[in-house]
Amino acid sequence: MRRFMMAGFALLALCGCATPDSVQRQAAINCLAVGISEKDPQFETCTHAYRRSYMEDRLENSFHDALNAVPEDRRIQHQWVY
């Protein structure tokens, strides 16, 4: 049972680290926009940096969403509640 759980957690970790194809395409487009073509030796480093930036932004947004699990209702101000 323990091995199945460890294998499941490992599979979830791999899925969590995978970058969607659309992110990889966008990273390539961003590198081309700054003047790094696919033939340049820095192209792989550039795409990796953009993919990593995207994943870090997603992680940060998920962290902030977890901290504020209940969205604030701005229609009712605090001083209006009796």
Could you describe the 3D structure shown?
This protein has a domain at 19-67. Helix content is 66%, strand content 0%. The protein has helices at residues 2-17, 21-33, 43-67.
The H-and-E topology, N to C, reads as HHH
Q: How big is the Rg?
A: 20 Å
Low-confidence stretches: none
| Alpha-beta classification | mainly alpha
| Residue share in β-strands | under 5%
Question: Helix count, per DSSP?
Answer: 3
Q: On the 0-100 scale, what is the average pLDDT?
A: 79
Quaternary structure type: single chain
Helix content: 55-70%
Gap from first CA to last CA: 53 Å
Concise summary:
The protein is mainly alpha-helical.
Main attributes?
82 residues; mainly alpha; 3 helices; 66% helix; flat
Outline the fold blueprint.
Blueprint: H1 2-17, H2 21-33, H3 43-67
Helix pairs in contact: 2-3
